[in-house]
Specification:
Oligomer: heterodimer
CATH architecture of chain A: 2-Layer Sandwich
Strand content of chain B: 5-15%
Distance between the termini of chain B: 73 Å
CATH class of chain A: Alpha Beta
Number of strands of chain A: 7
Largest sheet of chain B: 4 strands, parallel
Helix content of chain B: 25-40%
Number of strands of chain B: 4
CATH superfamily of chain A: NADH:ubiquinone oxidoreductase Nqo5 subunit
Structural class of chain B: alpha/beta
CATH topology of one domain in chain B: Rossmann fold
Strand order of the largest sheet of chain B: 1-2-3-4
Radius of gyration of chain A: 17 Å
Number of helices of chain A: 3
Mean pLDDT of chain B: 84
């Protein structure tokens, strides 16, 4: 079924109203909701709640977050972090969701069934940072060759000569 | 004026201005070697393969446009398929995932074929020589004829590389060398 996107900014809410709306709608699920830039709201999220919050954000009345721009991964040395960059056409605002992931056994639920564009971004996060996404339809390496050893964007990655038979 | 007419020079001038086509029926012979003619033709009709991998590709493309105009050397026909090409200009960083693809495309090119390694990355890995996914030099995958230094090289540098390649092509022999006659002794 073709999905008809709302007119950009049709909700006509200020960024503070959007932040307040998100804080009240999601209660304790979204922690630390704050306005970071004139068009961006930032929030933290427990990784157990990721899937259901993602579904609700996509279906949110009036300011549905219908587009996933990017899934970033950050290595904070103490833990990893996955950052979801969302955009709402109706609200004409961005939302950054920060999800902490432990460094040992970094696992998350996939959101590729909520926003299909997450599929390749999650593959890249797995490729570069080693975050494993449960329920992903095709979690292979995307940029590096299939037999590559390790996840090179981690801060503690050491490049071994054995990894480079051609170089 | 009258004098020249008497000598028939006016008719001769008219003849030169409109040459009689029949003169081409006369024996019209140029002596040269087969090697020279073939390699001369080959070196001036090289079809490059559009193999841009990074910023060097921008220089390679701009060398094809009017300001630099690679057509002056008869090399303007960039082809996107290896089947129609005989020169692979590797312009940019070759990473390890691209390496098997590059090898395969090189194998698909018809003989005779040449490779130009354009820029520091294709030649040696360049600024990414210790990268986790970078092949340190395309010559580890395919044989390279001409290396062009620079990061990225300007179109003029690419042209110098192409001229070096032309010299190299002109040294090729099509006719195999004749075996030495056996000694009479």
């Amino acid at each position: 079924m073709p999905h008809v996107l709302p007119k950009i900014g049709s909700a006509d809410l200020t960024i503070d109203e959007v932040a307040a709306r998100l804080a009240s709608e999601f209660g304790g699920d979204l922690v630390d909701v704050r306005v970071q830039e004139p068009d961006t709201v930032v929030a933290r999220l427990d990784r157990a709640d990721l899937k259901q919050v993602a579904r609700r954000l996509r279906e949110l009345p009036e300011i549905a977050y219908e587009m996933l721009n990017f899934v970033a991964a950050v290595d904070w040395l103490t833990h990893l972090e996955s950052v979801y960059h969302l955009y709402s056409f109706a609200g004409n605002t961005y939302l950054e969701l920060h999800v902490e992931v432990p460094r040992v056994e970094p696992e998350l639920e996939t959101v590729s069934d909520v926003w299909p564009s997450a599929e390749w971004h999650e593959r890249e996060a797995w490729d570069m940072m080693g975050i494993r996404f449960h329920g992903h339809p095709d979690l292979r390496r995307i940029l590096l060759k299939d037999d590559f050893v390790g996840h090179p964007l981690r801060k503690d990655y050491v490049d071994l000569v054995e990894n480079h038979p051609n170089a | 004026m009258g004098l020249t007419d008497d000598l028939g020079l006016a008719a001769l001038t008219e003849k030169l201005r409109y040459p009689n086509i029949n003169q081409f029926e006369k024996p019209n012979v140029v002596t040269t070697t087969v090697d020279f003619v073939f390699s001369w033709a080959r070196s001036r009709s090289v079809f490059p393969f559009t193999y841009g991998l990074a910023c060097c590709a921008i220089e390679m493309l701009s060398s094809g446009f009017a300001r630099f105009d690679v057509a002056r050397y008869g090399m303007e026909v960039f082809r996107p398929t290896p089947r129609q090409c005989d020169l692979m200009i590797v312009a940019g960083t070759v990473n390890e995932k691209m390496a098997p693809v590059l090898k395969r495309l090189y194998d698909q090119m018809a003989e005779p074929k040449w490779v130009i390694s354009m820029g520091a990355c294709a030649t040696s890995g360049g600024p990414f020589y210790d990268g986790y996914n970078v092949v340190n030099g395309v010559d580890k995958i395919v044989p390279v004829d001409v290396y062009i230094p620079g990061c990225p090289p300007r179109p003029e540098a690419l042209f110098q590389g192409l001229l070096e390649l032309q010299k190299k092509i002109q040294k090729m022999r099509i006719v195999p060398p004749r075996p030495k006659p056996p000694d009479d002794d």
